[in-house]
Design a protein that fits this description.
Elements (H helix, E strand, L loop, with lengths): L19 E5 L14 H13 L5 E5 L11 E4 L5 E4 L7 H13 L12 H5 L1 E5 L9
Parallel strand pairs: 1-2
Antiparallel strand pairs: 1-3, 3-4, 4-5
The structure holds FE2/S2 (inorganic) cluster.
Length: 137
């Protein structure tokens, strides 16, 4: 069983080349008070469960600086753009895994719009280019 305290792939095959989803475990829904477990932690657990056997790595993180628009998560893959999402809910685990797989299979490093889960269309907060990115004019 996958734990959110560890990557969903814990063997030696897990590498930085794997698509990775960082899920904020300290996120709350906007306007809601304290609750335990935090909704972000519930999303992280659901995402880890959805990722089982997928090759997608799930890593919990405490705050992605998107607190007012949580729940929050980021999806990255080596050589690809990194995507930050907000406005997620506890049911978005499978969507995050699907998005990570789309990104991992994208030859241009960009998560395709077509086929992207709805939650990842309406919840896009930002995308960040890969380290070696150069804009061509
Ligand atoms: S607490 Fe989740 S983004 Fe800050």
């Amino acid at each position: 069983m996958t734990s959110i305290g560890q990557p969903s792939r814990t063997d030696a095959a897990a590498s930085t080349d794997a698509a990775t989803v960082y899920v904020c475990i300290t996120c709350r829904y906007a306007g809601e008070g304290e609750s335990e477990p935090r909704p972000g932690a519930i999303l992280a657990a659901a995402t880890a469960q959805a990722a089982e056997g997928s090759g997608v790595v799930i890593r919990p993180v405490r705050c992605l600086a998107n607190c007012t628009r949580g729940l929050s998560a980021a999806v990255r893959c080596n050589g690809s753009w990194t995507y930050v999402f907000g406005g997620l809910d506890a049911a978005c685990g499978p969507a995050l895994v699907d998005g990570a797989r789309l990104l991992a299979n994208a030859t241009d490093g960009i998560m395709p719009w077509r086929g992207r889960p709805e939650a990842l269309k309406r919840g896009l907060i930002a995308r960040v280019p890969p380290l070696d990115f150069k804009e061509f004019e």
